[in-house]
Amino acid sequence: MKLQLHIEQDEAGYFVVAVPALPGCLSQGKTKEEAIKNVHEAIEGWLEVMSSKSEYSRGELIEVTV
Description:
Helix content: 25-40%
Number of strands: 3
């Protein structure tokens, strides 16, 4: 899976990383490299939580293009 990251440095000097495709998934680090390493863990956690919430009934799932 490939995801785009949005990285910016905050006023305290920390690098904050957000994953736009995964709402609420973000992390930080003292360096850009540390922040990117940390966001990997955040992504794994986000995906784990969301997969546990995706218990669908036996209804029909369809895909649409907008």
